[in-house]
């Protein structure tokens, strides 16, 4: 059974009259990359998969059950979302923010226990922000906030990861660390779907790709079959040249 499935799903992109129906079967252990130019609907798709936005048509299934029929707490135990941008709702420390990931697993008014704290601190260490645990979130840099957001989802321990530009604001070292973490999540039997702008990260870390075009067209399949230079040039409206490094394709824009 697919972990995450869409049945004739049409996402509701503002200003676009129609779009191709997506019937995707996303299995445990897979890493899906969603590629496309700005405005193609990548973020809208992730928000629809998370149940935060209603589709124009079709439905989303989790473990064979309609997403719309699941309670929000149940969804939060199954699915974690890394937003592309986030707002600070109230003053909180890095540790307190990571602990928010445990809230779906607590009963109303229940306080976090020792195991919750252990999971949060392990996640902060994994994302290299444990030394910032007592800092207020509003004092962090963009990259530090991004790593904290991923640490919070890691603390949540979902079976499905939806990540919108997970390497946003990150330097090369932390980009690699985050992508390796997501690959580890898939290797552990979880499902990962992420939006990416970097073709080379997609080529290196994803095993399935979904290409979203601005007009609503879409195509998807195994990575190697989707990384066709002509298709990618049409996707981005940009000429590309390719090379191979360590057995993986590398894409470079041509002036």
Question: How would you explain this protein's 3D organization?
Answer:
This protein is α/β, with parallel strands linked by helices and 255 residues long. The protein has one domain (4-253): Rossmann fold (3-Layer(aba) Sandwich), CATH 3.40.50. Helix content is 33%, strand content 23%. It contains nine helices and twelve strands. Strands 6-7-8-3-9-10 form a six-stranded mixed sheet, sandwiched between helices. A four-stranded antiparallel sheet has the order 2-1-4-5, with no helix packed on it. The longest helix is centred in the last third of the chain and has 16 residues, at 172-187. It starts with a strand and ends with a strand. The model has no long low-confidence stretch (mean pLDDT 94).
Please supply descriptive tags for the structure shown above.
6-stranded mixed beta sheet, 4-stranded antiparallel beta sheet, Rossmann fold, 12 strands, alpha/beta, single chain, 33% helix, 255 residues
């Amino acid at each position: 059974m697919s972990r995450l499935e869409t049945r004739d799903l049409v996402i509701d992109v503002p200003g676009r009259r129609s779009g191709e129906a997506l019937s995707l079967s996303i299995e445990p252990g897979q890493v899906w990359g969603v590629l496309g130019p700005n405005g193609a609907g990548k973020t809208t798709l992730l928000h629809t998969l998370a149940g935060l936005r209603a589709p124009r048509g079709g439905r989303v299934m989790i473990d064979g059950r309609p997403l719309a029929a699941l309670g929000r707490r149940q969804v939060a135990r199954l699915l974690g979302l890394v937003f592309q941008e986030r707002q600070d709702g109230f003053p909180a420390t890095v540790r307190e923010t990571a602990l928010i990931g445990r809230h779906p697993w607590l009963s109303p008014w229940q306080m976090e226990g020792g195991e919750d704290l252990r999971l949060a601190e392990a996640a902060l260490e994994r994302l290299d922000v444990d030394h910032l645990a007592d800092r207020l979130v509003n004092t962090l840099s963009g990259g530090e906030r991004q790593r904290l957001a991923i640490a919070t989802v890691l603390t949540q321990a979902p079976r499905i990861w939806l990540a919108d530009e997970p390497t946003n604001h990150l330097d090369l070292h932390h980009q690699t660390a985050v992508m390796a973490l997501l690959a580890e999540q898939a290797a552990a039997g979880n499902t990962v779907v992420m939006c990416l702008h970097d073709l080379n990260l997609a080529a290196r870390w994803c095993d399935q790709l979904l290409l979203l075009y601005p007009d609503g067209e879409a195509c998807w399949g195994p990575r190697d079959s989707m990384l066709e230079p002509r298709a990618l040039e049409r996707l981005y409206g940009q000429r590309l040249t390719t090379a191979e490094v360590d057995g993986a394709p590398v894409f470079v824009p041509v002036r």
